[in-house]
Amino acid sequence: MSKDMKRLIIAKLLKLRETFERLCSRFNYKGGNFLQSKMFLGGVSLCISVLLWSLVALDNNAESARTMRDEIEYRNLGAGYSVNAPVKEVEIKLEGKINELSGIEPSDIVSEVDLANLRTGRYTLPVRFEAPTFARVRSWQPALVEVEIYRNVERRVEIAPKTTGEAPDGKVVASIVVSPDHAVISGPETDVLAVQGLEARINLDHLMESGTVAVPVTISDSDAKSDAAQSRRRRVAITPQEVEAKVVFEDEIVGERIPVRVSVTGEPHAGLQVESVKVIPDSVSIRGSAAAVRSIESLDLAPVDITGLEQDIQLMIPMEPTQLPPGVEITGTDRARVEIHLSKKMSVMTFSNVPLMIAGNTASKEWRFSPSSVSLTIEGPETAVEELEGGRPPCELYVDVSNIVSQHTELPVLVRGLRPGFQVVRTEPEQVAVTSVE
């Protein structure tokens, strides 16, 4: 008997049974015609059901298809490695006899990807199947899967307490102790090394008095917030995931104004140096616990990099100190203006045995000096002084004998022709003995 004929007979029998069942519900037999009784109609319905069961049983040996989903097993991964496999399941289409296909359970099928001898990297690998011998695999999707294999590492990182919300009225946080104060992060090597820090966030809105509270450990918000960074975070495990934080409150006080300071890093352009660093405002007010406020002598902002700077600059930076005790707040502006002024880097050089010149001499007299030469120390821009090394000084030294009538006297050493940018620090000696020779 063909499949189409079987389906037609089954449809007719089903329709016939529905008709008898409607008749059974309409008639309420209390004697009379037996053909109208519920007993007769129920018997006919039972016969039709038996016929239907027989047809279905005969049809169990017919060919059919079945679609199943199976979880993929990633096997033979090397020690010390982990795998990131986005595809978790595969869809399989099987062919075979109806009665045999209907008895297949998910545990009868094995879907696996072999990771043997693979090292770190991304791979496209085939999915392999094992199905019962009586079932034929028509197709499966996907046939290939993308996997990423990475090396597992561990790293011990300090946990920094962070607070959110507001402390109770009139109170500030005096101290926060986190126990344990370190956690171990594990996962892909590149992801673990990219973690800058861990933090335990304590919501002060839920604390009415000093006490201990359990808080989760999370990766610091200072880390990147891109989609790639968020994906990396999901692959990093933190142990323990929760720590105890002991919070102690103190009465709030308003602190005195403290100076604001900014340091610089790096070096400006060659031949230049930092003359001054000015911060506006140069002081701010803080508030917090008495102990915390008294421990702060200045508000040190993040340093400014001046590497290669060639001229004076002004810039705005956040009023965010490099270190601030928990519970201490800055009042006032949230930004500071920094003015950095540069000057030429100065250098000092001493010249020995500089000869003395004479000025104001007459033809009738000859003068002798004792000593006949002196040492000269000058100061000038570093680059200009370096150019003088091994050469002549940037000026002349002389003695003025105009209107000198004494045969023996002492006169000061004078300077002339000094180049711009230089200045004389000293001459040794500052005076020399002068003797006239007729």
Describe the fold and architecture:
- The structure is a single chain.
- By secondary structure, the protein is an alpha+beta fold.
- It contains seven helices and 31 strands.
- The protein has helices spanning 3-26, 38-59, 98-101, 189-194, 227-234, 290-294, 382-388, and strands at residues 63-75, 81-84, 89-97, 110-114, 121-126, 128-130, 136-141, 144-164, 171-179, 182-188, 198-203, 211-219, 237-239, 242-251, 253-261, 264-265, 272-280, 283-288, 299-300, 304-305, 313-318, 329-331, 335-344, 346-359, 366-370, 373-381, 396-400, 408-412, 414-416, 423-428, 431-437.
- Strands 2, 5, 8, 9, 10, 11, 12, 13 and 14 form a nine-stranded mixed sheet that branches. Strands 6-4-1-3-7 form a five-stranded mixed sheet.
- A hairpin with a 7-residue loop joins strand 11 and strand 12 (211-219).
- Helix 1 runs antiparallel to helix 2.
- The longest helix has 24 residues, at 3-26.
- The mean pLDDT is 82.
The gist of it:
This protein is of the alpha+beta class and 438 residues long. The chain contains seven helices and 31 strands.
Total strands: 31
Helix content: 10-25%
- The low-pLDDT segments are none
Structural class: alpha+beta
DSSP strand content: over 45%
Separation, N- and C-terminal Cα atoms: 156 Å
Mean pLDDT across all amino acids: 82
| H/I helix tally | 7
* Largest sheet geometry: 9 strands, mixed
Radius of gyration: 48 Å
Overall geometry: elongated
